[in-house]
């Protein structure tokens, strides 16, 4: 028996021993096409020579220097790289080791910002139902997934949840996307008014919802309206791009496609592409300045913030994406993937919707296509699809959850940006076998 405390204590997984471009190889030599990038992580595939060299070089010179004593070169260069390309107003970067930590930092930056400017009563957070923002206690409290939260309640952060922007199930018959977006922005505004704007700190949302809904983009204009509502009431906007950011949807930041900026943006996964654990919170100038001119000290920190090797790896990943023009490739491959999915599964009796952006695509599974009836609540469907896909030599990311009392099952696809067209055919063939 393995002595690893794995989160699935009743399942056995194959042992991964090697990465090879878009494939992972297990101890028995079986190859798996990584169509989910793990969980939207492995944007450059698994054995990129330049990234490996950058890590070797950095470890050889300086692996780590604690940030209570030093900054380091890769950390400074990576911060410059990100700020130069970030949406307007974001002027500094707080580095952490992953997505949940990035969300925690964003929550505490928001809270400290209001303390610094003399509005400490603004501590209430608004997020969306059926959202996932991480598993540490603050990030877990933010997420709107009832079953994840339940056994850990009471949670530490005051949060209320409004509807996600989920056109397939949320947009009413005869309602235009614009009207739907406006209705949701009203719902957010009503919630702010119900709580009292003077007590609301921030609204948190993913620009394209990943794990919990399966690559669901917002309807056009939704985020611009949300931004207006937040501004009207002095509420900060936190965009969680842990999954959808760093090029996955075809632009470096998914927010670019919404035409909005944010007060805080969280990134992780594709930032380091899995080569090293790293995440970051991009901070607006307004927040940075309030803290710099106030107490001058952000009351937060982890041992590994700004880890030199992790920053060097992320810098190599992000430079590779830019130098190899992989964002255009994401858009082009994304279209190819979408066409193939529509072609193969467009008439499938149990595929109700195919949606997404770039190399971030989702299929919603339904018992009945005509009335969108979801499958009966059970976690077995995900497990069965995942098992069948792994048997077929494919990694995909099936998930399910209850939204407004209705079960929604989906499969998320988030493959590396380095695929060839033949991999798209292989992906769709293997997915078909699994389904
Ligand atoms: N936010 C979002 C949107 C995520 O998808 C995830 C991870 N699935 C997280 C936060 C948490 O990231 P991590 O698992 O790296 O802590």
List keywords for this structure.
single chain, 435 residues, alpha/beta, Aspartate Aminotransferase, domain 1, Aspartate Aminotransferase, domain 2, 4-stranded mixed sheet, 14 helices, 17 strands, globular, binds 4'-deoxy-4'-aminopyridoxal-5'-phosphate
Hetero groups in this structure are: 4'-deoxy-4'-aminopyridoxal-5'-phosphate
CATH architecture identity of the largest domain: 3-Layer(aba) Sandwich
What's the CATH class of the largest domain, please?
A: Alpha Beta
CATH superfamily of the largest domain: Type I PLP-dependent aspartate aminotransferase-like (Major domain)
- Low-pLDDT residue spans: none
N-C termini distance: 32 Å
Overall pLDDT level: 95
Number of strands: 17
Largest sheet geometry: 7 strands, mixed
